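Below is a filled-in request sheet from our internal design queue. Each sheet records the structural input a requester submitted and the sequence that came back. We keep these sheets so that new team members can see what a complete request looks like end to end.

REQUESTER: design group, bay 2
PRIORITY: normal
MODE: inverse folding
CHAIN LENGTH: 220
BACKBONE (tokenized):
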């Protein structure tokens, strides 16, 4: 924590750390800049263990009894800020876990953690070798696979999304890959009114996840 003024949010962080018996060291801002050269630390930096990935089965087994599983699969999301924003949405909308491919996807990094606003600590993330094969495995476990695609037959709010479900969001540049698209049980689209024909991946994920939440609360 930076030396000097410790009022407002910094004081709250200091008090919380002391309450939880977390050691706090006061240093000058130049030293903090070395710990977090690109993070915009605002006077405080926490040193924590790297976030670990989980297995897909770990996510499914952690679903509370009586709840239908809700997963989110991301097909080659490269932008760490998009990934972080999606994790934030997942944490807010009750998504049980997020699955990303090992290759051609942003990993869990400092930038992702920052964009997630803390959700990276609560939303399990699994990394798999083959997203299409993982989708097949999820189908065998009873999950319905719904992908977001401009060519989808139904508008997303017209699809039935109440049961065990995996939502699939495509990458920023090309959307859903061919194999991933073929593995989806249903493709849905978002209505477009103007000249832009697609949404940011994190916005699409938010609309999709909250439509599931709305339907599961019985307000379809």
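RETURNED SEQUENCE:
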């Amino acid at each position: 924590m930076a030396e000097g003024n410790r009022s407002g949010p910094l004081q709250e962080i200091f008090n919380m750390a002391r309450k939880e018996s977390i050691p706090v060291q006061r240093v000058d801002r130049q030293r903090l800049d070395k710990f977090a050269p690109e993070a915009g630390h605002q006077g405080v930096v926490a040193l924590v263990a790297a976030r670990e990935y989980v297995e897909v089965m770990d996510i499914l087994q952690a679903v509370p009894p009586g709840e239908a599983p809700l997963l989110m699969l991301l097909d080659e999301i490269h932008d760490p800020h998009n990934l972080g924003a999606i994790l934030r949405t997942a944490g807010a909308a009750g998504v049980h876990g997020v699955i990303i491919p090992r290759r051609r996807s942003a990993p869990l990094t400092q930038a992702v953690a920052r964009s997630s606003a803390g959700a990276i600590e609560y939303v399990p993330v699994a990394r798999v070798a083959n997203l299409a094969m993982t989708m097949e495995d999820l189908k065998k476990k009873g999950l319905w696979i719904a992908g977001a695609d401009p060519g989808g037959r139904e508008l997303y709010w017209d699809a039935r999304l109440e049961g065990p479900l995996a939502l699939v969001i495509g990458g920023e540049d090309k959307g859903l890959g061919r194999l991933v698209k073929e593995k989806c049980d249903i493709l849905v689209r978002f209505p477009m009114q103007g000249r832009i024909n697609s949404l940011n991946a994190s916005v699409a994920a938010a609309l999709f996840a909250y439509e599931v939440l709305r339907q599961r609360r019985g307000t379809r």
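SHEET NOTES:
- The chain has eight helices and seven strands.
- Residues 1-47 form one domain.
FILED BY: M.R.
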